[in-house]
Structures are given as structure tokens and as C-alpha cells.
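Sequence in, structure out. Go.
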Amino acid sequence: MAVGPARLVARASLRVLKRAFSLQKAHSIKNMEDTFQLVKNIIPPLTSKKHKGQDGRIGIVGGCQEYTGAPYFAAISALKVGADLSHVFCTREAAPVIKSYSPELIVHPVLDSSDAVQEVGKWLPRLHALVVGPGLGRDDALLENVKGILEASKARAIPVVIDADGLWLITQQPTLIQGYQKAVLTPNHVEFSRLYEAVLRYPVDSSDRRGAVLRLSQALGNVTVVQKGEQDVISDGQYVLECNLQGSHRRCGGQGDLLSGFLGALVHWALHAGPEKTNGFSPLLVAAFGACSLTRQCSHQAFRKYGRSTTTTDMIPEIGPAFSRLFET
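Output:
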């Protein structure tokens, strides 16, 4: 008896779901060390034989008058995890404030200029990854500039991590990132629901988080999606991983910015290492798991010290010890 096209599609979808959930099950708590080993495999060794910039030159696109902390958190976390240079491309008003937070950051006050795409484009050949969205805001002119920056980055095959109001832009125009498999999206609960409905045209089933993340990734052309939450659910459209490492009970703003900065560096490392170091799994999937784990460990360590008063600033000194605990022991 002939099988119709609809049934063939359904069977294919079922096979993908089975693969996805079998990997998720295989990498449950009891085998967490297997997943951590994949992350360890992509981490570049520290050696005196390298030159400045070799372990990561990361660009952060975001920062406006109202929001200056988010791009700082993303940029400094990329440095603290082991990238060599962090560039922040922000508006003119935000630049002096962001510079005042740290002398370590290279700050470009160009994002609200009429030639922002060209100005940022000059730096793209030097960057290994771009983090788009922290502190961006929703000004139409800024978003239009970011559209151009995203297109220029895709043309150069530069990996992009999209968070915060960068996700707002993608929700309005999903085709900006459709099929670009060097992208990672990091929505929280609200951002995920909004993006899911924009792409799939029906409400998300909150009782099936793993399936929802898988479906969104597939609908976007196998773009890697990290849904942040009580457990972080990660999918590249083929597999689903869940990161449920213990974090903290604090939900202070800025933790997602640390995650995006970690991801900027780890995505570069993972792509440079290649699938042979990730056991054939997507390098971006492994990078995302590593970044989620590190964010949770930093939050956990800070919360043990400061409890209810914990803020994201308290997490920054924990990056080194948390990284060593997870990936260097």
C-alpha cells in the first residue's frame, strides 16, 4: 500500500524527535561528564606560543543611552572566559559610560551613525564572533543599522549570537536569520513564546519545552536555539540537550548577558576545533551547553556567598573559579 506524502513527512519528523530525545536522555545527569568532556575538547590550551587575538576577538553590538550595563556584561564575560579582545559597538551617548566600566574593552561609538553598517563592517574581518542585542533597545534607526550589520556578518560567515532586543528584531523579521546555521538564539521564556508564534504561527505548548525548542530550530532552518529557564533547553534542529546544572534562586538582570558573552567565545572555539572534537555533534550545540553550564555555576557560587543580595556584578569574579571547576579538573 502506497504511503502518502503527509505520512512520510510525519514519519520523518518522528525520527528526528526520537533522535533528539534519545540524545537528551543519553546526556542526562548521570552522564553529564560525557557532555562536559565535549566542552573540554573545544577549549584552546593556554600556551606562550600564541599571539594576541588568536583565542578570540569578539564583537558586541548593543548599548544605548538607557542600557549600558548589558553590553559591558557581555563583553567582559567574553574576556574573562578566555577571549583576547572584546569590541563594543554602541551609540555615541553610551560609549563614555561603557568605557568607564572597564579599561579592558574597545568601545566604538558608531551604532547610531548614518554609516554604522560601514563603520562596523570595517572591523568584521578582524572578529571571530558577534554578539547582537545586549542593551540594544528598540529604536527603529538602530534596528535598521543592526539589520545591515547582520547581513554583512552573514556574508562573511561570521558566527552570531543573538539575545535581548536582537531577538525582538528577529521576531519582526525571522528571514534575517533563516537557515543561517552559524547563529545561536538565546531567548528567555517571554522572548521564546513571542518568537515561536511569529515563526510557527501558533501558540507554544509550554508543557513540551524540548519539543517546542526542537520545532522552532527546525522552522528556522536548523538555527541553534537556547531557551533559558529553570532548565536550559538547547536544540540545533537535530538533537536536544538539557542543561540542568544547579544555579541559584536569584533572577537578577544581566545573567543572560554573561551567557551571551560566554557563547561568543565558546562558539569561536568550537567552530575552530571542528566536529571531530565534538564527537560529530554540532559545535554550536556543544558551545551552548558549555556556556549555559558556566553561567549556572557562576550564579550558584555567587549565590552561596551573597544570597538574596546577589547581582550579576557578583558573578563576574566567579567566572575563573567556575570555569576551572567545570572544565579544568
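Check: The CA atoms of residues 24 and 72 lie 33 Å apart. Confidence is low (pLDDT under 50) at residues 1-30.
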